[in-house]
Amino acid sequence: MNADADVVTLARTLRAEAERATERRALVLAGDRERGYDRLESVLDTLSVPITSTTLVGPDDRLRCEQLPQANASELLGTTREVIAVDAHAELRPNAVGKVAGAVDGGGLLVLLVPPLEAWPDRRDGFDESLAVPPFELDDVSGRFRRRLVETLRAHRGIAIVDLESGRIEADGLTHPAPRLATADPAPPPDRRFPMAAYEACLTDDQADAVAALEALSEPDRAVVLEADRGRGKSSAAGIAAGAFATAGEDVLVTAPAARNAAELFDRAGELCRTLDDDATVESRRIETSAGGSVRFREPTAAAETTETADIVLVDEAAALPVATLESLLTADRVAFATTIHGYEGAGRGFSVRFRDRLAESNHEVTDCRLVEPIRYAGGDPVEVWAFRALLLDARPPVEPLVADADPDSVEYRRLEPDTLLADERLLREAFGLLVLAHYRTEPNDLARLLDAPNLEARALVQDGHVVSVALLAREGNLAPERRAMMYEGGRIRGNMLPDVLTSQVRDEAAGEPAGLRVVRIATHHAARSRGLGSALLERVREEFGDGADSIDWLGTGFGATPGLLAFWRANGYRTVHVSTTRNDSSGEYSALMLAPTTDAGRRLHDRHAEWFAGRFGACCSDSLTDLEPDVARAVLRSVDAEAAPPLELSDHEWRVVAGAAYGPGLFDVDPGPFRDLVVRYLVDDPDGVDLTAREERLLVLRALQVRDWETVADRLEYHSTGQCMRALGDAFCPLVDRYGTAAALAVRERFADE
User: Tell me, which fold does domain 400-618 have in CATH?
Assistant: First the structure.
């Protein structure tokens, strides 16, 4: 039998076993790319798989089926295919692997076209180029991630490996599973509101529980969250509920990252509507029932603008949407979110890390439901087990008892070298798991960066060998003049966030010259928080790299600005030098950049940017930052180095205007400019002896900096009238006049004090 026939026979045998077990199997075709495509075409010609159920994920449209580049793998979220082939010769993106693996249906095949396995880790591809952050070159990138990936492919059951160079089948991937026992039909809740047909459409008890949880949307001010790994039927449950609501006459608005992501939801909704209503009209993106109900799709932005026109809003693949978009959907009275928990889809863990806090603060009563039992494939599916291991999708920090008594005196500072992490699976899982659970952006690509990127460093605090706190650090700056000039002229430099922003946006061509170390992530185990461990880790990092050690001129960080985070970094010696003028798509927050200089060169960089920032922030507040939360604005200015406070160069006339509004019959509206300068100076200075309440400071920000109208400010701060709000503003300026006022201002104060 020739090699081509061997591969075809193997593929047919794998597929047959996968179908019997309702599991998936993987087929690795390792070797020459053209030979791999020849074998793949022979396999597809033999298998009885519709071309519409096959997808090629790769750079070229080589087959007679759907083709997507790896960068667009997220389009497969919420969909299923019987066969997905991934061409990994030009590049392998870990994020794409995670998204693709979850889209293969039970009984299906995941086919990987890869270089020879022995040589693959030592090759450099397109993804590696993204890790070659200047001043590092491609040769500085390592192949540890792919070495680990190859080891997992060889170690896990259900994965067949064919060496195309020799024609040898290295592993047949067969598991010979025992027959599975039949399961009982799911039982509906005794007090169900949905028709019995809705529960008859459920395939597992978990799915029936999810449909029952969605019945909560029958009441006002309700939110439901369905969480599950891929393949657990959460989208189908949402679709069944949507069909039940529509046949009862409700208007259901559905949104997802793209219409194709909600295809499963609409399929299930359409099936139930046809069962319950002979006159229902079912289309791919709209369903209408004879009771006047409907299920309709809108893109996320359009959906957020029309929530009030719908009775119920269902958000599918919620984890792939920006936090700001999710937050805007909370204007719906009744809303449900279906989200994946171990896939880091799109925005990573923005849903669970950031959005859940916003949801808890809303007016909705929240019902949670987690689906565990697989539907599209059986539990223990080999492809899922492999993907979770290879990409650390289920990575977790150490269990609580191991670190519960950790404090700064009991822990040890440790360098997490990539080779050490590669050799110690437990240490790798603990460190990466802590980063995953603590930050909304951590994703499979970050695992490859941790192991292979030459610009990254990892440090940790460990107790008895277990990770309690971890920091991911990126080297930035130290850029050659030609690179700095390119950045200044509009070019982008990968992996140099702070120099890039300070050069391209703030127009400082010298910003990329000093060498820096940016804290990309920092996370502390939830069982050991509020004990100073994060601060202790930063202090140890500063001791290691401070005073110009290892040629580092500054330490820095960038993050979605909140009062708590700004206070944390300020307490650890970092000072604000920039705030973005647009919100981050993932977090929905404005980003703050902070620096802690370690040498004279770093100090010069910090000082000029702190001065520039303090000088421009007031004007930005009345323009691009007019919707910045007042408490964030207060915290931002308080985290600016006090020595960068802009000088108060008010004329005697301007001081009389300010003092007149504070102590006399003067008006703020006559000349708001000097009031703004005074507020910025006060918040940066944060002087002793000035005791304004938080409400008074919010008033200063909203009216003097952000120029909100009196009615809006009075309503926001709960003043009884605009007149009371105006008087409160004047009162708030009194201690500022006392602290900073010149003789002209104090004369006005004395004059009206005498009256």
Answer: Aminopeptidase (3.40.630)
CA 17 to CA 174: how far, in whole Å? 7
Residues with pLDDT less than 50, the chain = 1, 343-349
How many whole angstroms separate alpha carbon 312 and alpha carbon 330?
A: 11
The per-residue b/e assignment along 172-188, b for 16 or more CB within 10 angstroms, e otherwise, is ebbbebeeeeeeeebeb
Contact 280, 247 (CB under 8 A): yes
- What was the pLDDT predicted at 439? 66
Fold of 3-171: Rossmann fold (3.40.50)
User: In sequence order, which residues have a C-beta less than 8 Å from that of residue 667 and are 6 or more positions away?
Assistant: 661
Strands (E), 426-506: 456-463, 466-477
Task: Assign 198 to helix, strand or coil.
Answer: helix
Q: Rg of the chain's alpha carbons, rounded to an integer?
A: 30
Taking the C-alpha atoms of residue 653 and residue 673, their distance in angstroms, rounded to an integer, is: 12
Known binding-site positions: 207, 376, 522-524
**pLDDT given at position 2:** 60
pLDDT number for residue 261: 86
Q: Which residues contact 450 (CB under 8 A, 6 or more apart)?
A: 418, 421, 431, 432, 456, 458, 472
End-to-end CA distance of the chain: 109
pLDDT on residue 353: 63
Start and end residues for every CATH 3.40.50.300 domain found in the chain: 196-371
Instruction: Please list, residue by residue across 618-630, b when 16 or more beta carbons sit within 10 angstroms of its beta carbon and e when fewer do.
Output: bebbeeebeebbb
Cross-strand partners of 254: 297, 314
Amino acid letter, residue 227 = E
Using a pLDDT cut of 70, give the percent of the chain over it: 96
Quick one: DSSP state of residue 243? H
The CATH code of domain 645-753 reads 1.20.120
**Each residue of 255-302: pLDDT tens digit?**
998 898 899 999 999 999 999 999 999 998 999 999 999 999 999 989
Q: Environment class of residue 362 by beta-carbon count within 10 Å: exposed (0-12), middle (13-18) or buried (19+)? A: middle
For CATH 3.40.630.30, the residue range(s) in the chain are 400-618
Q: How far apart are CA 123 and CA 129, in angstroms?
A: 11
Question: Residue 62 and residue 86: Cα distance in Å, rounded?
Answer: 12
| Highest CATH level, class, for 196-371 | alpha beta
Q: Measured at the alpha carbon of residue 715, what is the angle toward residues 712 and 719, in degrees to the nearest 5?
A: 125
Burial of 501 (0-12, 13-18, 19+ CB in 10 A): buried
Annotated binding residues for acetyl-CoA, as ranges? 522-524
Secondary structure (H, E, C), 5-50? HHHHHHHHHHHHHHHHHCCCEEEEEECCHHHHHHHHHHHHHHCCCC
Gap between the Cα atoms of 743 and 734, Å rounded: 15
DSSP notation for 149-174: HHHHHHHSTTEEEEETTTTEEEEE--
Closest by Cα among 395, 381, 432 to 102: 381
Q: Which residues are annotated binding-site positions for ATP?
A: 207, 376
Report which secondary-structure segment, H or E, holds 524: strand 515-524
- The single-letter code of the amino acid at 293 is G
CA 39 – CA 34 distance, rounded (Å): 9
